[in-house]
UniProtKB/TrEMBL annotation:
Keyword Oxidoreductase: no
Residue span, RlpA-like protein double-psi beta-barrel domain: 35-117
Cleavable signal peptide: 1-21
UniProt KW Phosphoprotein keyword: no
Protein origin, superkingdom: Bacteria
Family: Belongs to the RlpA family.
Keywords: Signal
The species this protein was found in: Flavobacterium aurantiibacter
Pfam families: DPBB_1 (PF03330)
The protein's name: RlpA-like protein double-psi beta-barrel domain-containing protein
Length: 125
């Protein structure tokens, strides 16, 4: 009876851990995405969603994702992450996947002097 309980417990653990890994892969939008941040000249301007852009808010621009979509952006170099909301269209540079507000960028980068970084992007909702 005791060995049966052990087998059941191990099976449940594998099932739970397996589902968790599968779920995070499903939510991965892009790995090794190139991201940057908005220039200061955008402060106070209207975004494509109609909101006013503020560098202090955790927002981002993406070409096709619905406004209001929440993303988790993870810097692949240091593992730091930030959650942002899509409020605008862009970036204009084709090689880039996202433009982040400066405060969001600084949550995952050491400074803005690097300009761009590689990140994994996960859709939260």
């Amino acid at each position: 009876m005791r060995s049966w309980q052990c087998v059941l417990a191990c099976s449940l653990a594998l099932l739970l851990f397996g589902c968790g890994a599968s779920k995070s892969k499903q939510n991965l939008l892009k790995s090794q995405a190139e991201i940057s941040f908005y220039a200061d000249s955008f402060e106070g301007k209207r975004t494509a969603s109609g909101s006013t852009f503020r560098q202090r808010e955790k927002t981002a621009a993406h070409r096709t994702l619905a406004f209001g979509t929440k993303l988790k952006v993870v810097n692949t170099k240091n593992g730091k992450s930030v959650v942002v909301t899509i409020t605008d269209r862009g970036p204009s540079k084709k090689s880039r996947e996202l433009d982040l507000s400066k405060s969001a960028f600084l949550e995952i980068a050491e400074s803005t002097s690097i300009g761009i970084l590689k990140a994994e992007i996960y859709i939260i909702n």
